[in-house]
Write a structure and sequence with these properties.
Blueprint (H helix, E strand, L loop, with lengths): L1 H16 L6 H8 L2 H9 L35 E10 L9 E5 L21 E5 L5 E7 L4 E2 L5 H8 L5 E2 L2 E7 L6 E7 L18 E2 L2 E3 L2 H7 L5 E5 L2 E3 L5
Parallel strand pairs: 1-11, 1-12, 8-9
Antiparallel strand pairs: 1-4, 2-3, 2-7, 5-6, 7-8, 10-11
Length: about 240
């Protein structure tokens, strides 16, 4: 009976911690591995592998033009992320939508620091061009701890687990006639790739953020030289596949 009451108290506290900008139940699902289990059971072969949505997709990403900078506060190492959105047979998907969000260079999302970061920092909604291409500017993400000031943090401490996530950028890619995919782009060489607190790392999603010293390319992307460049294609399965 005491254990049941403790469990009910824990779940009650988890619910009471949720706000318009914080989803403690999603965080709980993530650290228990339930989110990744659901993703794995429901994923289709052939496309980009999916990962967890995470607790910070809590606000609408601002519409941005291709090439825009989603890092509105600066301070991190500048980088460019570029790639294509493709169908499973390699056909480009013009007009595909990419919802992108990430933490700032210090490991915080905009909704965690409304007094420091402007709303929409680290977020963007991009439309791929006629050849399915996309590109945007940002800062190289860094590893960071998930919030530990609530019930989920108590759970991690009680079980002797660390709260850290490897460096990553979130993506949701959608296109007409295709299944959407929710995924991450992980930074190769990041700490915690082998011990992600939410079990979301898949090797196919780990990509190099290549150091690039090319003044002409830097001018083309409108970033300081040198910079980092990550290339990441997203492959969507047709609805009837």
């Amino acid at each position: 009976m005491a254990e049941w009451e403790k469990a009910v108290d824990f779940l009650t506290a988890t619910g009471q911690t949720c706000t318009d900008t914080r989803q403690e139940f999603i965080l709980l699902s993530d650290v228990l591995g339930v989110s990744m289990l659901v993703e794995t059971v429901n994923s289709d072969e052939g496309g980009t592998e999916s990962t967890v949505l995470g607790p910070f997709h809590m606000t609408e990403s601002p519409v941005r033009a291709l090439g825009a900078d989603i890092d509105l506060v600066g301070g991190g190492e500048p980088c460019v992320v570029s790639g294509r959105v493709l169908s499973a047979d390699g056909t480009p998907l013009p007009g595909a939508l990419l919802d992108v969000w990430q933490a700032d260079g210090n490991g915080f999302y905009d909704v965690q620091q409304p007094e420091v970061q402007p709303a929409g920092n680290g977020r963007g909604l991009f439309t791929a061009d006629d050849e399915g291409r996309f590109w945007f500017r940002t800062c190289v993400p860094s590893p960071y701890p998930i919030p530990t000031d609530g019930p989920v943090g108590k759970l991690l401490r009680a079980t002797g687990r660390h709260p850290y996530r490897p460096a990553h950028i979130h993506f949701i890619a959608t296109a007409d006639g295709h299944e959407p995919v929710t995924t991450h782009l992980f930074v190769a060489g990041s700490d915690y790739l082998d011990s992600d607190a939410v079990f979301a790392v898949k090797r196919s999603l780990v990509q190099d953020f290549t150091p690039t010293d090319d003044p002409s390319l830097a001018r083309e992307f409108a970033v300081p030289n040198p910079f980092r460049h990550a290339r990441f294609d997203l492959v969507l399965n047709p609805v009837d596949s």
